[in-house]
Structure formats: structure tokens, C-alpha cells
Amino acid sequence: MSTPLKRRPSYTVHDGFRMPMGFPVQGFASGLGYRPHSSDIFVCTYPKCGTTWMQYIVYLIVSKGKPLAAGESLTDVFPHLEEVGAEAVEALPEPRLIKTHLPYRLTPQRHEAKYVCVARNPFDCAVSFFHHTRGFVRHYDFADGTFDDFFECFIAGEVDFGDYFEHLVSWYRRNEEDNVLFVTYEDMQADVERIIVEVGGFLGGAARAVTGDPRLRGLIRAESSFDSMRREQRRWSSERPAGMPDFVRKGVVGDWKSHFSAQQARRLLDAFFEKTGGEGAYHLWPEVIAEALAFSRT
Ligand code: A3P
């Protein structure tokens, strides 16, 4: 049973697709029509699932361990396709590094291009997305919104970039394809060095050599660590009003328990089961499911 909504975030809606306010509709339309180059590397995620972390790992692999220079920001070297549009992406040097939050059906495809997907369990994603939505006042006008209000929008798929489950299932189904690498945020948390090697192997060529080198691998790991990225906040995000959580916020698995009610946990579990048919993606996070089940009975 859902609770009545007191407050909703505001969005820009284009063709039924919600985006943060201020994202130009032309950027979205032209981004969808982008024709990928064979050397393109996409990082494909639902919001708040470890996008920036994976982007920086990919960037560091491609740059052979060289961090962003002073004054550079990840947003510029690794832009968001449906925000900046096709032309801006076409102007990037090769290999073009491209971020997208689009579900598979809307993501520009090319067989030779590479698609690195990161998924995160829906419980922690919802909490992280709530803080993000509260924090970016100019994008959502939701500074005084509550988790309960956000939860209703999240579970209904009425948030920017659409339904969490549609995104998850659409990419999970592709994980056997040779141009798609599908990993989870929780895998990255458990053993990031293994994931760095996996990404290098997937990208192939020089990237494989870079991640096969223990010194470079250690460097990439250190540069992309939570503490290092937290120190360099301004490279990933800006304009957060005082008192709002940082963009690189907590970076943990399991924070959801401090926000969810037992009933919300039950409802999200049910939605997860129904929208995945209880198969495939539903089994990505068995520990979280077990915890959520136990929590829902408290
Ligand atoms: P929390 O809000 O749970 O802390 P995205 O980049 O897709 O917006 O994802 C943001 C989430 O990834 C935030 O989660 C953020 O703290 C976490 N994150 C960002 N950089 C990280 C890193 N280097 N290590 C671990 N988590 C990181």
C-alpha cells in the first residue's frame, strides 16, 4: 500500500522520459541519434549506481594511469550523452568516453563499440538517489523532500531516467554479448582490483596491458578510491547548497537500512521480484534480498 505524496521532485519531461530540470531537450534528442564510432567506450548505468567511480576507472585505464590534470573535470572528458548531445560527443578525441543513463532500447548501438554497465542493488540506489535529488536544488527543487516521498516516485519509476528495473533488466539481458561488460557496484566494493583487471581485459589491447601491470593497477586503484575521489569532489560535481550531502557521499553497501521502513522494504522486494520475474537480475544480490526480507519482518 502506498502513502499519499506530500512533495515530488520536478523534472523536464521529453517524450515521456524524465530528465533533471535544466537538461536541454535538444541534447536528449540529438544524444539518442548519436552514431557510435567503433572505438567508443560507453559507461552505462542507472543513476547513483557507481557511474562516476567506473568512469574514472575507465578514464585512468585509457590514460595509462595518468590522473585528470589540474583544471580538468570528468564531466568534460567523459560527458553525459543525453545531456550534451551528439555533436559534443563527436568532438571528443578517440577513444570517445561516453556516459549514459539510458536503458538499452534507447542507447545508440554499434557492435564494435564497448559498453561497460554497472548495476547497484535497488535499496542502496534508492537512498543514494534520494540524497542526490534533495541536493541538486536547481535540477529537482526537492530540498525539503522526504525519503518517503522520494520512495513513492522511485518505486513507480517516476524519477529521472525512468524505471530502475527497466534499466537493470534491459542491460542484464545483454551481459552475454561480447561488447557488453556487466558488473555490480557491490563487486567493485568487494574487490575493485579484480574489476579493474576485468575492465582492462574487456577493453583489450593497451588497456589489457595497463591493468596487467601491478604498478599501474595499484595507481588506478588508489586514484579512484573513495577517499581520493572524495578529496577531489569538484571534479565530479558542483553547486551543492550548504548542508547537503556530498556527491561522493558514503560509498557503502547497506546504508538503505537507515532510511527504509519495514513496509517499504517489503514493497521494493515485491516490485523487484515482479519486474524481474524472479529470475536473472533478481539473483544478483542474494545477501541484500535476505537482509531485506528479514528487515521487512521487523
Ligand atoms: P552513496 O550516495 O551511497 O554514497 P553515481 O556516480 O552513479 O552518481 O553514484 C554515486 C554513488 O557512488 C554514491 O553513493 C557515491 O558515494 C558512490 N561513489 C562515488 N565514488 C566512489 C568510490 N570511489 N568508491 C565507492 N563509492 C563511490
Task: Please write out the topology.
Layout: E1 11-14, E2 17-20, H1 25-32, E3 41-45, H2 51-62, H3 74-77, H4 81-84, H5 86-90, E4 97-100, E5 114-119, H6 122-135, H7 137-140, H8 147-155, H9 164-172, E6 180-184, H10 185-190, H11 192-203, H12 206-212, H13 214-223, H14 226-231, H15 262-276, H16 286-296
The structure holds adenosine-3'-5'-diphosphate (A3P).
Descriptive terms for the model:
298 residues, alpha/beta, Rossmann fold, four-stranded parallel sheet, 16 helices, globular, binds adenosine-3'-5'-diphosphate
Could you please describe the fold and organization of this structure?
Strand 1 (11-14) and strand 2 (17-20) form a beta hairpin. This protein has a single domain (11-248), classed as P-loop containing nucleotide triphosphate hydrolases (Rossmann fold), CATH 3.40.50.300. The chain is globular, with a radius of gyration of 19 Å. It has helices at 25-32, 51-62, 74-77, 81-84, 86-90, 122-135, 137-140, 147-155, 164-172, 185-190, 192-203, 206-212, 214-223, 226-231, 262-276, 286-296, and strands at residues 11-14, 17-20, 41-45, 97-100, 114-119, 180-184. It has 16 helices and six strands. With 298 residues, it is α/β, with parallel strands linked by helices. 46% of the residues lie in helices and 9% in strands. 39% of the residues are buried. It starts with 10 loop residues before the first strand and ends with a helix. The strands form two sheets. A four-stranded parallel β-sheet has the order 4-3-5-6, with helices on both faces. Helix 6 crosses helix 8. The protein binds adenosine-3'-5'-diphosphate (A3P). Adenosine-3'-5'-diphosphate (A3P) is lined by residues 45, 47-53, 124, 128, 131, 224-226, 229, 248-251, 255.
